[in-house]
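To close the chapter, one final illustration. This time we ask the reader to focus less on the individual chains and more on the assembly as a whole: which components sit near each other, and how the overall shape emerges from the parts.
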Amino acid sequence: DAKTTQPNSMESNEEEPVHLPCNHSTISGTDYIHWYRQLPSQGPEYVIHGLTSNVNNRMASLAIAEDRKSSTLILHRATLRDAAVYYCIRLSLSGTYKYIFGTGTRLKVLA
Amino acid sequence: EAGVAQSPRYKIIEKRQSVAFWCNPISGHATLYWYQQILGQGPKLLIQFQNNGVVDDSQLPKDRFSAERLKGVDSTLKIQPAKLEDSAVYLCASSFSPTGGPLHFGNGTRLTVT
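The assembled structure is written out below.
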């Protein structure tokens, strides 16, 4: 089962950090963790991905637990434009490398 | 770099009619995906192509849905005949390879079946 578990919704104040959790307790050693977000009326867009180590890019940071059973997407300073649905995806390198989306977390940013 | 192009942007049809969606992936991207996104849900993978070959179509309702990717570039997804429950956004995505880089999505085609 390649599904992940995320809270349905979260709220954050503008310019404050946001921590979006994801549970993937059945992850295997070669599964990557990917994060995508979907703004209203748009297709999903890539945010960040990682395997074992924490990762940073211009959009966000990804913190992966030592046992890899969970991860957290960190937006350092939320803006109104970060309001979106955030999807945490396990990508298995065995088989057909399918990106399977769950229902994601709807992030609301308050001004 | 030009993004993934999809058309039409919107389509309204009556049940039992047929409809086709078109996708032009990013140049050089060998892997192409079609997803169905029902309102309030995450995207559901329908079919995955590697060049012009089908890698996975296990979630494609083959009695009414078909897809092709001739010459390994553009792709079309067809529904015939459409049902009310096919109302959704159909998203096309591409990537350089199955493991080579992120997915790039188009903005989708919103289908309404009445």
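The longest strand of chain B covers residues 88-95. Chain B touches chain A through 23 residues (CB under 8 Å). With these observations in hand, you are ready for the problems at the end of the chapter.
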